[in-house]
Structure to design on (451 residues):
C-alpha cells in the first residue's frame, strides 16, 4: 500500500496513471450501463465521484512536489495533467458512442432499457406517472403520463428532484397536477383529460395541448411548447385561457415518485396555486396609486392600482436578486418607475405613470441605435404579465410604427400610441423604493418529506 501511495504522490507520472485508470473505469461503466438499469446508473455515479477524487489527488501531488522543491517532478505532473484532460475529452466522446451502440444492441431502443419508477398503478387514480433517469450523474428524470390504455405522453423533465405531484379534480372531470411545489421556480402545471387521453401544460395564462407522441417537453413560452417525439420536434401554439378553469377544484392528495399515493383533504396549496395580490410597501413617501404584487412560479408579477379601481399589469421579475423598484416624480406631474436592481440602463425595464389619465407607458429601447427610445402606452385593462412590443418602418422614408400587444379580460388588445422619450425624465425627484415581498414558500414550512 505504501508503494502505491508513494507512486501516486511522489512520481511525475503517478497522478496521470491514477487519472487514466479511473477515467477508463468511468467510461466503461457508462458504456455498459443501459442493460443494467438502475444499477448501471448507480455504478456510473460512483465512478464519477472516484474520478473527482482522482483529480483532487493530482492537485495534492502537485502541491507536495512544489512544497518539496521538486521542480522537475512538478513540471512533469503539470504537463501530464494537461495531456490527461485532452485524453479525457477523447475518451468521453468514445464512451458516448459506445453507450449508444450497447443500448441499441441490447434492446429495441434506448428508452426501453432505462429503469423506470411508475407512480400509482391507476387503482387510486385513472392514470399513472412514470419516472426514467435522464442523466447518469444528476438527479434528473424524464416524466411520462401513462393512461389505462397504455397511451403515453411525456411532460417536463424533473430537474433536481421536484418532489411529489399535488393532484386535484376539476369540476369538468379532468385532473389538475401541480409539479414542483417545493421549488416554485421550476414548477409545472398540467391538466389531464382521461376521457380523451390528452395532457395540457400551463404556459403563463394559457393551457397548451402537448403534441401526440411526445417523449418529453423540451421548451415552453408564453403560449407555446416544443416537444420531442420519435419523428422529431413538434410545436403546439395557443389553447384555452386558464381563466377560471381552476375554480371549484377538489384536492385529492400527493403522488410521490416512489409510487405511493397519499390521499388528502382541504386545499393545502391554495395560496401557491392562486396567490393573492398584495400591496407593496413604498419606502420614502406616499403616492396616489398602489403597486400590487403576487408570486407566481418563481417570479413576482406587478400591476398598478389606481384610485378608481382600474388596474394595469406592468410585468414580472424573477424572485432572485430583486432590489425593488425606484419611483421618481417628473416635472410634468407624472411618475417614473424602474427596476432598481438592473444596473445596465440600456436593458432596464421602465414605466411612466399618468395618475390623472390612469394610464401607463412602458419604455421601448432600440438596442441597435436605429430609432431611439420611446414611451409606448399600455392599453387599459392589461392583465398579461409580459407585453409584446413590435416595431416596423422608420427606414427609407417609411413611417415608423410601434405596436404593443397585451391580454385583457376581453381578449388580446393591440395599442399603437407612442412618443419619443426625449427629455421627459429630466429634473426628476426621487420619492422612494417599492420593496418586493419576502414570500418564498420554501421558508414557510411547506417542504414535504420525500417518500
Amino acid at each position: 500500500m505504501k508503494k502505491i501511495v508513494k507512486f501516486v504522490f511522489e512520481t511525475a507520472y503517478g497522478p496521470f496513471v491514477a487519472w487514466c485508470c479511473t477515467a477508463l473505469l468511468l467510461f466503461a461503466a457508462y458504456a455498459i450501463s443501459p442493460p443494467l438499469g438502475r444499477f448501471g446508473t448507480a455504478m456510473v455515479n460512483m465512478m464519477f465521484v472516484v474520478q473527482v477524487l482522482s483529480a483532487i489527488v493530482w492537485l495534492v501531488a502537485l502541491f507536495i512536489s512544489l512544497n518539496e522543491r521538486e521542480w522537475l517532478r512538478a513540471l512533469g505532473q503539470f504537463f501530464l495533467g494537461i495531456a490527461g484532460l485532452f485524453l479525457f475529452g477523447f475518451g468521453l466522446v468514445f464512451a458516448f458512442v459506445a453507450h449508444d451502440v450497447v443500448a441499441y444492441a441490447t434492446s429495441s431502443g434506448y428508452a426501453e432499457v432505462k429503469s423506470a419508477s411508475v407512480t400509482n398503478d391507476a387503482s387510486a387514480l385513472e392514470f399513472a406517472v412514470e419516472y426514467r433517469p435522464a442523466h447518469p450523474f444528476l438527479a434528473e428524470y424524464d416524466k411520462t403520463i401513462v393512461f389505462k390504455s397504455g397511451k403515453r405522453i411525456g411532460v417536463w423533465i424533473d430537474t433536481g428532484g421536484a418532489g411529489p405531484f399535488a393532484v386535484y379534480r376539476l369540476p369538468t372531470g379532468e385532473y389538475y397536477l401541480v409539479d414542483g411545489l417545493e421549488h416554485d421556480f421550476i414548477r409545472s402545471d398540467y391538466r389531464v383529460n382521461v376521457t380523451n387521453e390528452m395532457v395540457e401544460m400551463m404556459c403563463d395564462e394559457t393551457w397548451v395541448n402537448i403534441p401526440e407522441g411526445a417523449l418529453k417537453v423540451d421548451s415552453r413560452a408564453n403560449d407555446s411548447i416544443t416537444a420531442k417525439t420519435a419523428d422529431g420536434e413538434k410545436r403546439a401554439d395557443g389553447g384555452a385561457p386558464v381563466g377560471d378553469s381552476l375554480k371549484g377544484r377538489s384536492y385529492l392528495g400527493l403522488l410521490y415518485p416512489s409510487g405511493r399515493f397519499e390521499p388528502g383533504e382541504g386545499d393545502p396549496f391554495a395560496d401557491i396555486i392562486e396567490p393573492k395580490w398584495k400591496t407593496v410597501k413604498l419606502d420614502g413617501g406616499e403616492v396616489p396609486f398602489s403597486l400590487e404584487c403576487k408570486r407566481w412560479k418563481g417570479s413576482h408579477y406587478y400591476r398598478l392600482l389606481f384610485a378608481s379601481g382600474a388596474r394595469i399589469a406592468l410585468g414580472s421579475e424573477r424572485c432572485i436578486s430583486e432590489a425593488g423598484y425606484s419611483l421618481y416624480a417628473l416635472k410634468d406631474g407624472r411618475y417614473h418607475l424602474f427596476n432598481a436592481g438592473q444596473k445596465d440602463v440600456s436593458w432596464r425595464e421602465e414605466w411612466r405613470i399618468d395618475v390623472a389619465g390612469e394610464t401607463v407607458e412602458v419604455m421601448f429601447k432600440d438596442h441597435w441605435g436605429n430609432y431611439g427610445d420611446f414611451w409606448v402606452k399600455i392599453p387599459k385593462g392589461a392583465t398579461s404579465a409580459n407585453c409584446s412590443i413590435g416595431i416596423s418602418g422608420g427606414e427609407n422614408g417609411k413611417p415608423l410604427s410601434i405596436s404593443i400587444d397585451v391580454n385583457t379580460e376581453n381578449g388580446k388588445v393591440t395599442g399603437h400610441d407612442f412618443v419619443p422619450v426625449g427629455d421627459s425624465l429630466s429634473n426628476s425627484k426621487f420619492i422612494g423604493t417599492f420593496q418586493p415581498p419576502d414570500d418564498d414558500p420554501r421558508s414557510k414550512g411547506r417542504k414535504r418529506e420525500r417518500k
Q: What stands out?
A: Residues 107-115, 444-451 have pLDDT under 50 and may be disordered. Residues 178 and 189 are 5 Å apart (CA to CA). The first strand starts at residue 117 and ends at 119. The chain has three domains: 2-110, 116-264, 278-442.
